[in-house]
Specification:
2 strands, mainly alpha, 101 residues, single chain, 4% strand, 49% helix, two-stranded antiparallel ribbon
Length: 101
């Protein structure tokens, strides 16, 4: 499934969301990559192969405006983003990953 990772995320007023101390708006690409390379407390027992797979996907997505991902990769991204970010980011990114946004 071809996903538009370059799409910017918006606040409730429809304005671009900027991370703290950044002049570059958040995109599906930046949120997806961050979710794959950020280790959470629950990830301490994750095996090296899984971490490799997450890093490999992050490298593939990084810098891409569009990228073709599998259904399994969409599920992974939704899971990781859902654990790392709040509702405003989750609803937009999930819609984008499901082709609704």
């Amino acid at each position: 499934m071809l996903i538009k990772f370059g799409t910017s995320l918006k606040d409730l007023a429809g304005e671009p969301i900027f991370p703290p101390d950044s002049k570059v708006p958040m995109t599906l690409e930046s949120v997806s990559v961050a979710s794959l390379v950020t280790l959470m407390q629950e990830d301490q027992s994750v095996d090296a192969k899984t971490k490799y797979d997450w890093g490999h996907l992050a490298n593939q997505i990084y810098g891409q405006k569009e990228f073709d991902v599998s259904t399994e990769q969409v599920v992974l991204l939704k899971n990781r983003i859902g654990k790392l970010y709040g509702p405003l980011i989750v609803v937009q990114t999930w819609d984008m990953l499901e082709g609704r946004g």
